[in-house]
Amino acid sequence: MELDNLGIILVTFTFVPLILCKISKAAKYYIKMVFYSFSLILVSWLLIPVFLLRPKNVKNLLIYANMVKHLTIVLGIKWTLRGREHLSQNKPCVLIANHQTCLDALGIYRTRRNTGEIHAFKKGAFYTAIHHQVPIIPVVFSSYRHFMDHKKKVFDEGEIIINALPEISTIGLGIKDIDDLMERTKQQMIDVYDKISEEVSEKSK
Description:
Elements: H1 2-23, H2 25-53, H3 59-71, E1 77-82, E2 94-97, E3 109-110, H4 124-132, E4 136-141, E5 148-149, E6 154-155, E7 158-164, H5 178-204
Parallel strand pairs: 1-7, 2-3, 2-4
Antiparallel strand pairs: 4-7, 5-6
Helix pairs in contact: 1-2, 2-3
């Protein structure tokens, strides 16, 4: 009897969400968001021991991203990473990424809001990079707007391109150079963001 009840529970939690996803876009949105959020928490907990053994190692980001990538296949999300070599270096750096939603829960310092453009950065990341004389590595995520819309409760299938750019040196720079460094970094990211966002948008048509 207990096995029968367990079977009913498993079927319910497997097929009911699938059916709801087929008949309601809003249900599909919420089910996918819950699944993804739970996956992030699970992966984070599983990797805590690894990160404690490898503190401040930029390759931890690749391990985390690789695990999340496989989990999000269930959501119909395809991740394409470009410039992996820039994230595989064994030296300290500051990562700057254009954070849009919880889907890109990666990176250290980020500029927020999913409005289809890259907004002004916070200066903290640049102070840190200059103070420690370590390079900045920009990481650009393509727009999600072709498959995700929080206001309309839409979460369809789609592709996300992550493009890690060559490092930007801060050697010899001082506090007076922060604004120029921020502008140079932002412009590089905008150019790549526009290009890869157009690419994924064209593929989705």
